[in-house]
Amino acid sequence: MKLLRHLLLIFIASLTSAPAYSASLIRDAEIEQALQQLAKPVLRSAGFGSGRIRVLVINDPKLNAFVVDANHVFIHSGLIMKLNRPEALQAVIAHELAHIANGHLTRRATNARVAGRVTAIGMALAAAAAIGGNGDAAVGLAAGTSSSAARRFFAHTRAEESSADQSAMRYMGSAGLDPSAMVDILQIFRGQEALRPGRQDPYARTHPLTQDRLRAVKGFAASYKKRSQPTTPEASYWYARMSAKLNGFLRNPRSVLRRSESKGNGEIATLRRAIAYHKTPNLKKALAEMNALLKMRPRDPYYHELKGQILLEARQFNAAVGSYKQAMALAPREPLIESGLGRALLAQGSSGAAKQALTILTSARSRDPGDPQMLRNLALAYAKNGQNAMASVATAERYAVLGRFDDAAIHAKRAMGALPRGSSGWLRAQDILSSAEAAPKRKKKRK
């Protein structure tokens, strides 16, 4: 396990061109819940357990989706916001699952042994990300790099694409989902291959599209069409919530408000307005919309969490803690909600709140260790509780996740010098230090 972690960190260091990644994961409990709900029927028809594969969103306007291991599917926010119905998103997920199910990652691992050392090291990423559960580290490789080795790693052959299309259509048909949604996806990218590589969306470069492939997909869609059923209310609902959340936070708030005015006082329109008013910022109106949402769904943990976030970012710390606690009571095992509550408790500033924060953030880390924001707050909680050596451990882990290996090494050494040799914290710091020391050193730019 340790060797795989080292290889992962080395590979990220060798490919990224900046200390931090140029794209990041959008870690949001509500969005991730929506994605799991939408993926569930496709996962079931593809033969995957519902808890094995996570679908995560990258904050990037480009149109792309990819897999890096047998446990994660990554989709760019730009692609999600380009789509207009849940089945289209489910088709994207089905296609990426097909690459996993059809063994394309394994075949790329075999090819990597011939392609060169950098690409071969990259193949350790899949196993390392799967074992460590570190989606942020994996996305550091995938989302921000311009390395030709990384492009080769993620690129699929035309044969693989045809195979994935056929499997994805079968998954969609077995799940009763409209298979013509796959045609919609390919139509979005039609014409991309005629553009210069620099102007193409990443999906077109890594998922080659041909007219033969498009015709084949249309044929598959026609043959599976009879199995499709109307969109379920549940799929429509979660798709609408996720779209509202992404558009609310990523689009211009005034534009969101203009579009929401004609949508009435329904739940989704109210959610869009709450976020847009928060970003404007107009706390009074944002809270009015949130209270309207909570009147509609008083036991929805994600709405309580969003209200907590709005209050926290408006520096209403006591009220934020109350909202986060209500959210956590309704979703007690959700690490992203735990992380938010820990952050709000730290903002309160009292020693009692700091102790509570440390307990809650430690729990969040045990469930989801790859969240840099959580690790930052955990380090602060350790420091406020007088555990400076453990604060250095959490800081070292955060810098390692961000690819800042020199900084990670400094804090890991500091922790190891202060902690009992062989203790759990000392061992965590040792892992980070070994990985940081093994990572290739960046050449400093000449002035």
Automatic annotation (TrEMBL):
Its cofactor is Zn(2+). One of its GO terms (cellular component) is membrane. The keyword Flavoprotein does not apply. SUPFAM superfamilies: TPR-like. One of its GO terms (molecular function) is metal ion binding. GO terms for biological process: proteolysis involved in protein catabolic process. Residues 1-22 form the signal peptide. Residues 32-219 form the Peptidase M48 domain. The keyword Signal applies. Gene3D superfamilies: Metalloproteases ('zincins'), catalytic domain (3.30.2010.10), Tetratricopeptide repeat domain (1.25.40.10). InterPro entries: Mito/Outer_Membr_Metalloprot, Peptidase_M48, TPR-like_helical_dom_sf, TPR_rpt. TPR repeats lie at residues 301-334. Keywords: Hydrolase, Metal-binding, Metalloprotease, Protease, Signal, TPR repeat, Zinc. CDD domains: M48C_Oma1-like (cd07324). It comes from the Bacteria. This is Putative Zn-dependent protease. It comes from Litoreibacter halocynthiae.
